[in-house]
Amino acid sequence: MNTNPDEIKLALWLDDELTGSEFAEMEAWAATQPDQLKAREELREYRSILSAHMPASEELPYPDFFNSRVNQGIRDTQVAETKPVAPTTNPAGSSFWKSWLMPVAACAGMVLAFSIGRHGFGESASIVSNPPLNPSVNPVVYTPEEGVNAEWYASTGADATVIVLAGVSAIPDSTDFSQTVYVPTIREADRTATRELEGAETIK
Amino acid sequence: MNKDHGDASKSEQGRTKSSSKKDEASGDHEEDFRLVALAQQGDMSAYDELVTRHRGKIYAMIRNMVKNDADAWDLSQDVFIKAWKALPRFEARARFSTWLFRISHNVVYDWVRKRKIESAGELNDEIFDRDRIDLSARTAPAFVESPDDALSNSELREKISAALETLSPEHREAVMLKDVQGLSYKEIADVMECTLGTVMSRLFYARQKLQNLLKNEYESR
Amino acid sequence: MRSIFQPFLSILIAAVVSLQVDIAIAQDDPGRAEVGTLEVTVYYATNGDPSAAGDRAQKVPDEIVKRLGKVEHLKFLHYRALGAESQEIFRTYENWAQPLKPSDEILVRFEPSSKPKVDEVSLDLELWLSRKKILKTNALLKKGSPLYVLGPEWRGGRLIIAVALARK
Q1: pTM (2 decimals)?
Q2: Lowest CB count within 10 Å: A18, B26, B159, C109, which one?
Q3: What's the ipTM?
């Protein structure tokens, strides 16, 4: 369907949004349209009443505290985004000693992290058959519901992170998922699986 | 003829008022851009100044959308934290305040969606009852009605607020952005990520409701 | 009193129906930029009769079966796919995945908790079951390395929620 710009122009004029030649053009036309002039005045009155009773700006409570909370939030964000720098090769600046020491340090770090990781799993330590994939990142796992617990571990065999929930209420058997909009078929899932496995090989 | 002349001069007055408001506003925008440029260089005091300049508008807007002071306070913080993160990508193609309103729109949208999910499950009225908010909690300052609040808490304002509450969030937001915050149709379309036509129809519907309410008010002027 | 909006009415009805006006290109909210895609899949795992999952449930490819079988807690005799959904990861906003849509029995809320990298993203992740927040975690997701959550019991089996970064 086609747009009639005059209709839009009229709406903009009624709302005092026109300027320049467009405004002049509409003003000239409106001079012969007392109804439109009246409508514009009434719209201005309505806006003026509304803005008088609904202020565009309100001083919020504890404004200085607000600003300091914003600053704190920004700092928290910056801390979260600062991660330990992973060791990288630096051919330009590497020395013989650096190139020898770094792999040794990396191995020592992995051994240390493995023993820390095992200690941290408690009862489930026996479940972990492999060292954590990424020892520098221990995910925080929190379960707000009373009676629900969660334990996590990394599975190198499956190249995945696993979280085991315990104490969660069962979904009633009567709950039906037969209306599910999208269920991946074997063909679609195959493509996904292939991508995932390719990714796993790359990481290894 | 006189009527026409009178109307024409009235319209000129309207334009003059509108123009001088725009001049003042454009000076504000220049200052905003200057502060943004400094903040983009990492000047936190410049950003703090931007927060001070705009927090009132953002808070007023969000408060009318979520109807809960504490949530509005928290969500307003979120807006400025998100704006800081996004600041490196802000270019002076639009007003800084309009950009903030766009972020506010997204923040409120996420909040409304989350609330729908939460309230569909456990109906925990305590969460939403202001009197039950833990006042010792870090994020919940104690609210006491200030004298200014009492003054502005007129019957008409209550009526307007009540009428706004009957509108859907989209209609409410459109009328707040246009008739309270004074954004243009194009700016509103950008903030709400919809077409100009959608803005116009939402405004039309919302204004009709409010117009019925205000009928007596401006008939007496 | 005559409505001030009567002149508007016919104009705006036509405008709403026929309007095709390009909006001015103005400043975007960079926080809404997409930095990746999250795939959330729900599997039904059981040592009993897999048909309990219903006719709509689909068989799971061998590769995924083998993968799940390598994890002691996720090892079952039978698996079925119940549903899945992919959703964009926004730079600074949260998003939700509803893999069993239209059911909201299982929901996953997520948002980046730090700057995403090419093949990995750190997410604040929440798992909601029966409209209650059950689990909150800060998962570091890498492409090819999913997060599996052993979830609630259902019809004699367990639900496994798989969360993975999609390859583009």
Answers
A1: 0.63
A2: B26
A3: 0.84
